[in-house]
Amino acid sequence: MNLDEEYVQFQESITSLNRAWRTLSELERCPSGNAVWSAAYRMVVVEYCKPFTPSQINRSERYRLPLPNIPDESKLLHDRLLKLRHEVMAHSDLSALDANVSYDNTAYLSMPLIVKNVFEDFPSITDIKSLVETVLDALYQQEAQYELRFKQRP
Questions:
Q1: Residues whose CB falls within 8 Å of the CB of residue 21, separated by 6 or more in sequence, listed in order
Q2: Phi then psi dihedrals of residue 63, to 5 deg
Q3: For residue range 8-26, what is the model confidence (pLDDT) as tens digits?
Q4: By C-alpha distance, which of 3, 20, 107, 115 is closest to 63?
Q5: What is the distance between the alpha carbons of residues 1 and 23, in angstroms, rounded to a whole number?
Q6: What pTM did the predictor assign?
Q7: Do 64 and 102 meet the contact criterion of CB atoms below 8 Å apart?
Q8: DSSP string of 79-118, one letter each residue
């Protein structure tokens, strides 16, 4: 990947993280529990994870933004959000559901009953917003490095 492509990816990452931050700010002011709030929450998780999920640069290259140097507790939440995005929000991994189908063979009409995990322990919007701010602060510090690299170009 050349410097221009890397810089575009870097700026798109910042845009995505800012979009997540703005949505989190709106969610803080809204009552939770309705369908629109839930959809916005899912969008926040997806937007946060975009920079850290491989994206196609060209036909042969994929790139993911390296996680900047952030505190360990922030890294744990980062990993949790990626797993949530990959297994629940953007995909529906059956392994995460750990689902089983049961039948009552004694019933007149034996209907299947699905028993599965219910995901209720989602990270709070306050915690996610703090993580987004931590990551953005680190990325804004990296912007100066791009300016130096562009100045050094032939």
A1: 129, 132, 133, 136
A2: -145, 145
A3: 899 999 999 999 999 999 9
A4: 3
A5: 31
A6: 0.79
A7: no
A8: HHHHHHIIIIISS--HHHHT-EEEE-TTSSS--EEEE---
